[in-house]
Amino acid sequence: MKPVCIVVQNVYDIDPRVRRKAEALIAAGFSVDVLALSDGRATKTYTLNAVNIYTLSLSRQRGSLLRYAFEYAAFFLWVLFRMTFLMWRKRYAVIDVNTLPDFLIFAAVPARWMGARLILDMHEITPEFYISRYGTAKWVDRCWVSFLKYVERISFNSADFVITISEPIRDLLVSRGLNPSKTVVVMNAVDEDRFALSLDRPSVQAANQFVMVYHGTLSRIYGLDIAIEAFHLAQAQMPGAELWILGSGPEEQALAELVRERGLSEMVKLPGRVPFADIPQWLDKCAVGVLPIRRDVFLDFAFPNKLPEFIVTGKPVLMSRLKGIRYYFSEDALAYFEPEDPVDLANQMVRVYRDRELRDGLTARARAEYKPVSWDVMKLRYLRLVEGLIGSARAVAETAHSSL
Fold first, then answer.
1. Which is deepest, 201, 207, 278, 379, by most CB within 10 Å?
2. Residue 169, exposed/middle/buried by CB under 10 A (0-12, 13-18, 19+)?
3. CA 247 to chain CA mean position, Å
4. Nearest-angstrom CA–CA distance, 119 and 104
């Protein structure tokens, strides 16, 4: 078995993109090690579905630039030494480094000197991420953005191959110097096998119940306050409707307070964090998915894992009208509304609530438009890339061409 190492500054168990790749490699006959953050369990090394995970205990308390810098630096140094030690023992054929940060690729340079090929999977676009968080009002911010673009460029130029999560992001990076011949798009598609039970059985929602659901991190960027305000405006026209907001995060208390202020405690539920393995069962109980993501220079490129999860479980989706989503899905596939506009979202809530034929049409069209970017397609593209890096340059070039 050819050994592959995946690096991600996140908890492996809750990172669906990295887990999909790791388990696809295992199924294809590779051995896989992952360097990641600890989830708090007692053991620092464990195995999950044949994937070996090595972890660092490093709490995520991000907010200030200094905290980001500390966490990135600490994880970088740990990966640098741990990777080099493991490379001496295991001789990885390929190392797949997942951003953020972009410069994490340099922790794998000693392994490259020993023969490993390097993939940089650019989950996010760092300059836009910085602008979204901190803006560019001051000259120092503009200098930081220029510096981040420089780090981004030397990072993707240092990899043997680069993965992006969508064509719009790929095009943006190409405009900043990324060689189109060394990049491939592997989207945030969902592993349909995890949702097989939901797909093979009828919905369990009660006949008089209409549940709209969001699942994920409770952060301001995801616009859950907008969803609550929209539900407040629309609920009188939707008898029996409920809004479930599943997850945890920095906005949890503020959202709970907003629910109380609007008198929606009986209709808007915040059950807390849902175990990763239980998501299909929760989605099976809902009628509609809600993704009220805010729009800015960073979020306009978003393509959340949650969207394909709703689609493969046959749920119509209320979706912010974002550039990265509209590239793949038409107005007939998703119930779009203007970001940060609770009135527009409320109107769409009422519209899908009242019209079963509309819901069925949205579901069918979304499934059809999702098929070309499904995990079956993305998995094959990723495996071809890894196998090509181990085998021939021609196979890698063919993989890049197939994603255009």
1. 379
2. buried
3. 15
4. 11
Cβ contact 291:318 at 8 Å: yes
* Tokens linked to 8: 């991600």
User: Where would I find the H helices in 123-223?
Assistant: 126-134, 139-158, 167-175, 196-199
- In the chain, list all ranges with CATH 3.40.50.2000: 3-189+374-402, 192-372
For the record, the structure tokens of 189 come out as: 């598609």
Torsion angle of C-alpha atoms 56, 59, 60, 66, degrees rounded to 10: -100
The H or E element containing residue 369 is helix 356-370
d(CA 162, CA 181): 10
How large a percentage of the chain has pLDDT more than 90? 70
What sections of 159-267 are H helices per DSSP? 167-175, 196-199, 224-234, 252-261
Q: What's the CA gap between 82 and 64, in Å, rounded?
A: 27
Query: Cα 321 from chain centroid?
Result: 18
Number of helices (H), then strands (E), belonging to the chain: the values are 16, 14
CA distance 138 to 191: 43
User: H/E element holding 385?
Assistant: helix 375-390
Query: Given the structure tokens 């908890």, which residue do they identify?
Result: 11
Distance CA 151, CA 72 (A): 14
Between CA 110 and CA 159 the distance in angstroms is 13
CATH 3.40.50.2000 fits 192-372, yes or no: yes
What is the CATH class of 3-189+374-402?
A: alpha beta
In one-letter notation, the amino acid at residue 1 is M
- C-beta separation of 227 from 292 below 8 A: yes
Sign of the dihedral through C-alpha 219, 221, 222, 228:
positive
Condensed to tens digits (0 to 9), the pLDDT of residues 192-251 reads: 876 655 555 555 555 457 999 999 889 999 999 999 999 999 999 999 999 999 998 899
Neighbouring residues of 378: CB distance < 8 A, sequence distance ≥ 6: 186, 187, 189
* pTM of structure: 0.85
**Token pair of 75, please?**
């994880």
